[in-house]
Backbone:
């Protein structure tokens, strides 16, 4: 005959599991969504002819002719002034411009807006859910229901309304909540957890990671600055560097993505011409070699052809880097 203690234990376990079941079915704006399943496969048909997905931001209509390659990915931003501004940008520009294009759109998407800066508690409690659902519905209705969202890009830096600034746990809770809301409307969206290569503050990037079930792609923006990577020695010394146990160099970012069973994106990379050494064809060559040698792990890369200091198409300040990019991407495979 079972003891009173074992019966009490069974009752306690039963109550615990019931409570967990209730908590796992979080109500998001009236839609019950439990724990997310496995992340969506970060792959799609290539149109560039390269062994990895490749594209650009701010490139214009002549970009594909310049490099003799179609775009697998287009890099845009949804804005961050207000949620109304984000919805307008998505509905009036992004869906109309990219809804029927081949390839895939990747969107810099805010976690918080300028008028909701630092409002982590409001995010977690669902204050912005209706805005997120409206944007997700607009993407879905406009043919972009499988777009890539770089949700809260570069949150490990400073300056954006969603920058972590010591709020690690609230940041992660907000990120998870917003992913659930967005995917409850458009489950085909790909979530790109996109960080700066070097984290600001006293915490390694691994501490900031919100969890595999909330991330489809791990991303890093990898500009040619801090440090300048214009020699083999400089490239090698930074490539496998770490910070407080987390990735910093491109090699350690690739390893970090692999350790989580994810592909790595490099949504923003470019030369950084603020000194006489800014026109850096060597850096362009090494980025190309890295993409080619790790093609099976690269979700996509996008050259950031915005601002004069970064441009290789219609280069101005960077004619040598421009020639190198054109040569490599035109002839590469």
Residues:
């Amino acid at each position: 005959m079972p003891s009173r203690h074992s019966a009490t234990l069974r009752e306690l376990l039963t109550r615990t599991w019931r409570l967990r079941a209730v908590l796992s079915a979080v109500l998001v704006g009236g839609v019950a969504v439990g724990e997310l399943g496995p992340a969506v496969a970060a792959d799609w048909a290539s149109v560039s002819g390269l062994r990895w997905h490749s594209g650009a931001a701010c490139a214009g209509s002549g970009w594909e002719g310049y490099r003799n390659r179609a775009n697998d990915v287009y890099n845009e931003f949804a804005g961050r002034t207000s949620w109304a501004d984000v919805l307008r940008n998505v509905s009036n520009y992004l869906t109309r411009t990219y809804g029927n294009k081949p390839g895939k759109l990747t969107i810099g998407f805010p976690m918080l807006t300028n008028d909701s800066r630092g409002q982590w508690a409001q995010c977690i409690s669902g204050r912005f859910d209706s805005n997120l659902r409206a944007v997700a519905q607009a993407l879905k209705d406009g043919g972009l229901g499988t777009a890539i969202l770089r949700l809260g890009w570069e949150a490990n830096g400073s300056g954006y309304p969603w920058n972590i600034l010591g709020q690690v746990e609230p940041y992660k809770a907000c990120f998870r909540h917003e992913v659930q809301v967005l995917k409850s409307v458009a489950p085909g969206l790909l979530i790109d957890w996109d960080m700066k290569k070097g984290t600001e503050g006293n915490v390694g990037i691994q501490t900031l990671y919100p969890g595999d079930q909330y991330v489809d792609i791990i991303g890093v923006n990898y500009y040619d600055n801090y440090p300048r990577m214009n020699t083999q020695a400089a490239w090698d010394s930074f490539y496998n560097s770490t910070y407080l146990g987390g990735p910093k160099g491109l090699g350690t970012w690739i390893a970090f993505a692999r350790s989580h069973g994810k592909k790595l994106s490099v949504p923003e990379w470019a030369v950084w011409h603020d000194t006489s050494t800014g026109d850096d064809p060597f850096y362009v060559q090494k980025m190309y070699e890295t993409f080619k040698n790790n093609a099976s792990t690269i979700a996509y890369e996008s050259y950031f052809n915005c601002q004069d200091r970064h441009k290789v198409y219609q280069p101005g300040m960077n004619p040598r880097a421009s020639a190198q990019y054109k040569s490599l991407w035109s002839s590469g495979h």
